[in-house]
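OP here, attaching both records as promised.
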Amino acid sequence: MCAGRRHRSPGPEPPRRRGRQRYVEKDGRCNVQQGNVREPGRYLTDLFTTLADLQWRLSLLFFVLAYALTWLFFGAIWWLVAYGRGDLEHLGDAAWTPCVNNLNGFVAAFLFSIETETTIGYGHRVITDQCPEGIALLLLQAILGSMVNAFMVGCMFVKISQPNKRAATLVFSSHAVVSLRDGRLCLMFRVGDLRSSHIVEASIRAKLIRSRQTLEGEFIPLHQTDLSVGFDTGDDRLFLVSPLVISHEIDAASPFWEASRRALERDDFEIVVILEGMVEATGMTCQARSSYLVDEVLWGHRFTSVLTLEDGFYEVDYASFHQTFEVPTPSCSARELAEAAARLDAHLYWSIPSRLDEKVEEEGAGEGAGGEAGADKEQNGCLPPPESESKV
């Protein structure tokens, strides 16, 4: 059987190789940039999502410009209406009925535009019933102003309540570990939720990202392979009240089936883990991501327990959330471990009957020397030999 891992003093460090470029950062950001987009107009077809995805400083700038430009646009139209009707030339004429009372310039027109769109209505400037074009413009500005309000308030609400902010309180262990569980090698990592409000319908997935070359010679630089974390058994659906250790059993279907400790350290891959669920407070879907490179996978380690039973409740110590400790672990691959276990089982299966037969033969020899009284007795479930019957 393959040798277990023993505690020993650290030797000289091997030469460091060049670090792999992450596909997904530890904080969940995808390290991918879109370049040479030939049709940027596609972003305008989904303007709401485009505005929600903007950075905060750009969102605030667009928010201010949307209102300011709308007020300036309609203020200019109100000034043109007053200028076209000649209201600005009859400012002191009491017999003249203007379109808007007390509108004596562009600044006044701009202020009237703000009062109209925001429905402030100070009462100093008011439209008269002798201006049909002004009445039509008032209706148009009221309708368009309501649309701008609904659009911008909706964008800011979505921006503020984005579920990716909730993902900041979902934590992953800084390292993944490989050790034995129930006699099988398993790749494990830990997840936790820092908030007391829970994630509803939480589920976990894991992807292996590494280069691959097909039989036809095609090179796939970022090939994605699923790592089973309990989809068939339902273990991927989590009740994330306290930190949980997620386990990937390295079996014949696992891409690490033939990977020993040394082979794993020489490999070049990235494991991306994805936690999804609904935020209990808002009902919005939340996704948290993290990743592990080769040097972040510790062979022969296990996570330190963080859950303790106190007086009437359980307490989680997040100070030990990322801590691991060494445990004896075979350094061979899971395939070699399974073959060694199968050989051991086969040896025990054949050795136990042979030892029973030897014991029966010893007992039979002792009974023959003691006399013929026990010759009729059965030995290990077998009838006496034919010689005993002929003597009788």
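Record two, same layout:
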Amino acid sequence: MSLQNASIKLTHFIIGGFDTVKRPVAVGVVMLITYLLAVTGSLVNIIFIVSDKQLHKPMYLLICNLAVVDILYTSSSTPTMIRVLLAGVNTISYVECLIQMCVFQLGGIMELFSLTIMAFDRLIAIIYPLRYHSYLTNTRIMVLTYILWIVASNLVAVLPAIVVPLPHCSLRLRYAFCDAAAVIRTTCVDAEKFFNLGAILSFFLFFFTFTFICLSYCVILFFVKLSSNNDRRKMGSTLVSHLICVICLYCPMFVIGILTRFGVVLSLEERQGLLIGTILGPSLVNPLVYCLRTKEIKNKIIKIFRKVNTIFRKVNTAG
């Protein structure tokens, strides 16, 4: 029997990734709270940067771009997982699934690109502090960011071109949402060759972006040795903020995308946990790191809290 004859006509998928979860409501509530905190933190960064002209500088534009990417990345799949866990709705239409798959991959690639361009920004700022604003203007940063979005979109456009023509033999997704691996596993073809192709593409993305980030760190550390103690503290703070974001994103991505192709075996629960951590971890950590460790944004938050506190005191006094 040919694959085409054995295939079924798809209108929807059944999400089976949480079938073995013993306390779906508890897990769903934790994910919902984490998701709301992540989106709120990113929105706060965006609102502060867009509304304050003093923050219309290359570094803050990149932080704003990262916040947009975080919202896109976590919102691509988390609402679906929360819906399955809390409402028990475990079906998703075929078209919606394909859109989710592409948006999720776009968000993941842009996370890598965003952290890389932010490393480049800090590298130029530390090596050429006096000429930084002449080298990296707002216009150049915007153009560079647009280029990265276009490149990422073109890479993602390959996915539906590969998946849509394939015949499907199953409605059931093994994982918690519509990532590429889950959708390809429902097809009637040998999935390994597609996974190997994905691993090769992931390897090159990881290799080039991570290598660039590491080289920028090496150069920055070299300049740190030649700097005064005060400059060392500023550079160290910059590195720590960026390093926290890099670790949260790259570690689980590297395990899922690369190590599993080299013999590392993960159970379904382990893979799901890493995947969810890859989605929610960076999206929660990034806005917190850049809110708390960026002086201008932190000062704005403190001023807002002081104003709110003053208003409450006046209300209580009047009462």
